Amino acid sequence: MYTSPTSLPRPLLDAFRRAYPGHSPDVFVRAPGRINLLGGHVDMHDGFVINIAINREIWLAAAYGAADLVRIYAADLDESTVLPLKRLDEKQDVVGNDLPRWAHYPAGVAWALQRRGLKVNGIDVAFLGDVVMRAGLSSSAAVEEAFAIAWQALEYWQLERAELAQVGREAERDYMGIGTGIQDQFTCLHAREGQVIWLDCRTLEHTYLPFPPSARVVVCDTNTRPELAGSKGSYNGRAQDCHDTAHTIGLVDRQVKTLRDVPLSRLEDFEPVLTADQFRRSRHVITEIARTHDAVEALQQGDVAAFGRLMNESYWSARDDYGSSSDVLDAMWSAATQHAGCFGARYSGGGEAGAIVALVDVAEVEDFITCTIARYEQSTGLTATLFVAEPAEGAGVFM
Question: Is residue 361 annotated as part of the catalytic site, yes or no?
Fold first, then answer.
């Protein structure tokens, strides 16, 4: 689990030295963000996803510290906290203040590792990165896996990468109460440079496909941000509707454990006993799982146009059935897909806000970016941030 980038970011060393004068790091870790190209909202229902890691990443420097304290400096935020390893359940810092939002991720990782009976001692950490936060690019998973890898390197125990991915998911699902699946963490750890990863979220079977050389992924950030937990219309509420649907069908058909086990015709049989939200949202999950199968075939045949059409269908389904789009995402999707060089687009992440990801003809990228920014600003009055994301290698220790 080693990576060898061309150089260590100088700002990381500077941040560590500012936070811990006279102290030197014992380990460096990088962990990339990820983009969900297809398979939106299906991982928590044991579905299939198609992802890439991206060349935007979290960098972490860590050193051995006090036995029961984790001192963390989040350089991008210029914020620090100290986690007491013996009181992680309280979600408070060492003096009893509530942890800041960003600190729940490393705290959750430490908590999940402790549940496995693994040695987790105090460390001093500084981290920073260029994964855009809360835009659907999995900055949280990158932070989680960076901390998990750092502890593994410093404590000399070993977990398989799939198990490290489970640790990250437990940090979000069990510690933080966000009903996520495993695709973010798994992709962060298992991705390969220049390739697409297909993942079965039930078995964790995965395979790699070449990224089409005739296209580029362009991240189209709306510069608006979602909230994942909360109301019935939230990320958790939508997922729960789908879990409830599977439970209802499973009372009659014991073979059904999740929506992955439900064909569309079977869902339609149960429409009279489901709420409108349960039916629509479950229809999105079931049809999205089917789209991932078609997308694998399109990639294998090098049919970028077909893959792009499936991305558009995914967006329409998430918008109309799952109900997790928004006016700003609709505006960005429209701005992106109006360009002749755009094969297709959808959002990556939980929805409601964040970023649209577009598959764009390699020869049209520059014009696509210029035109999409202008169209989005004209329709919303907001300024977007667009950049090309290259398929990157998974997380690891930098030696």
Answer: no
Task: Establish if 97 belongs to a structural domain.
Answer: yes
The structural domain count of the chain equals 1
Model confidence, pTM: 0.93
CATH code where residue 11 lies: 3.30.230.10
C-alpha 223: how far from chain center: 17
pLDDT at res. 138? 83
Containing 306, the helix (H) or strand (E) segment is helix 304-317
Residue 197: which of 295, 289, 288 has the closest Cα? 295
8-state DSSP, 156: -
Nearest 5°: phi and psi at 110? -60, -40
Look up the domain containing 45 and give its range: 2-210
Residue 311 lies in a domain: no
Helix (H) or strand (E) run with residue 368 in it: helix 365-380
Q: Is the dihedral of CA 323, 344, 46, 107 positive or negative?
A: negative
Assigned domain for 104 exists: yes
The residue ranges of the chain whose pLDDT is under 70 are: 1-7, 134-135, 227-233, 399
Contacts 24+ apart (CB under 8 A), 269-278: 270/245, 273/248, 274/245, 274/248, 275/241, 277/232, 277/238, 277/241, 277/323, 278/241, 278/242, 278/244, 278/245, 278/248
Is residue 26 domain-resident?
A: yes
Instruction: Report the alpha-carbon distance of residue 101 to residue 107 in Å, rounded.
Output: 10
Who's near 216: CB < 8 A, 6+ residues apart? 359, 360, 362, 365, 388, 390
Find out whether 196 and 299 touch, Cβ atoms under 8 Å.
Answer: yes
Active-site residue, from 46, 124, 184, 321: 184
Is 214 in a helix, a strand, or coil? coil
Strand segments (E) across the chain: 2-3, 27-38, 48-64, 69-74, 79-84, 123-129, 195-200, 206-210, 215-221, 342-347, 355-361, 385-389, 396-398
